[in-house]
């Protein structure tokens, strides 16, 4: 993954695994990460149960970027089980399509339409047509996540069936994560529509984006305080001393980064 250290920062969330070179990375936005951790910990600490939800994922940073996630009301729930409520999933789909001030009040109009077969607000007809055009937003609602309470992370038989057959069965690809209260993450990519092979053990990263205007300020702060000192005569003299007394000084560790994803 190509990254610009001036503006962004990535943090690895799961340990490296022996995976093929073309294995894509999963990158969680800071808000997706915080929400997942909070809901997982609340489920484990208060209810002693698993929790689950969905999210929006699309290609970005040459990876599979999860921009936001949502908690879904359960139909069944327990210490080692959670099933999403179908009605809540439908409500989430509508929420994703009607985000923004343009659709304020539209849900009430939609309820009236479902009961009476018509809208009481003439503008609602225009919004309804626009809604159909915006339905393509749902194609990015193909991220599924759930917690394993205080247990380890892994894919049960039920989890495998959910990922390969039940969750977004017409999607070209989907991404799933299982996590737990301890903060372990396990990710996979499935191809439900084509019944393609599952990609397991995807690297999971946290994206800590720094806006450009803030990045410039922080870089200046670094340069004024650290950079200037490093360029000073005292530090240069110290570095030369180290080089003169350490034959291994020139050896450097391999650069660690996020590998390119396909």
Q: Please tell me how large the radius of gyration is.
A: 24 Å
Indicate the mean pLDDT. Answer: 78
Q: What is the CA–CA distance across the termini?
A: 9 Å
**Overall strand count:** 11
| SSE topology string | EEHEEEEHHHEHEEEEHH
> What's the CATH architecture name of the largest domain?
3-Layer(aba) Sandwich
How many DSSP H or I helices?
A: 7
Helicity range of the residues?
25-40%
Largest sheet: 9 strands, mixed
Q: In which order are the strands of the major sheet placed?
A: 1-11-2-4-3-7-8-9-10
Q: Which descriptor suits the 3D outline?
A: globular
Please state the structural category. alpha/beta
CATH class division of the largest domain:
Alpha Beta
Q: Kindly report the CATH topology of the largest domain.
A: Cytidine Deaminase, domain 2
For the record, what is the CATH homologous superfamily label of the largest domain?
Answer: Cytidine Deaminase, domain 2
Write the layout of secondary structure elements.
Elements: E1 8-12, E2 26-29, H1 30-47, E3 52-60, E4 63-71, E5 74-78, E6 81-84, H2 86-97, H3 106-116, H4 123-133, E7 143-147, H5 157-166, E8 174-179, E9 185-191, E10 196-200, E11 204-209, H6 212-230, H7 233-245
Parallel strand pairs: 2-4, 2-11, 7-8
Antiparallel strand pairs: 1-11, 3-4, 3-7, 5-6, 8-9, 9-10
């Amino acid at each position: 993954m190509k990254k610009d250290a001036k503006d962004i920062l990535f943090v690895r969330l799961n340990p490296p695994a022996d995976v093929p070179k073309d294995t894509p990375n999963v990158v969680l936005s800071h808000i997706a990460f915080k929400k997942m951790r909070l809901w997982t910990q609340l489920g484990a600490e208060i209810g002693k149960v698993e929790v689950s939800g969905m999210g929006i994922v699309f290609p970005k940073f040459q990876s599979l970027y999860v921009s936001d996630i949502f908690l879904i009301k359960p139909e069944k729930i327990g210490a080692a089980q959670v099933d999403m409520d179908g009605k809540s999933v439908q409500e989430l789909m509508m929420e994703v399509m009607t985000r923004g001030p343009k659709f304020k009040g539209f849900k009430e109009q939609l309820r009236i339409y479902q009961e009476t077969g018509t809208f009481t607000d003439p503008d609602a007809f225009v919004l309804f047509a626009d809604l159909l055009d915006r339905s393509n937003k749902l194609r990015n609602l193909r991220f599924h996540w759930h917690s394993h309470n205080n247990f380890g992370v892994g894919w049960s038989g039920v989890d495998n069936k959910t990922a390969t057959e039940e969750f977004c069965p017409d999607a070209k690809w989907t991404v799933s994560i299982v996590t737990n209260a301890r903060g372990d993450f396990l990710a996979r990519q499935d191809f439900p529509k084509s019944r393609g092979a599952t990609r397991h053990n995807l690297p999971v990263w946290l994206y800590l984006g720094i806006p450009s205007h803030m990045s410039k300020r922080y870089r200046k702060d670094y340069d004024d305080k650290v950079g200037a000192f490093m360029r000073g005569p005292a530090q240069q003299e110290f570095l030369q001393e180290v080089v003169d007394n350490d034959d291994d000084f020139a050896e450097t560790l391999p650069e660690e980064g996020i590998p390119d994803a396909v």
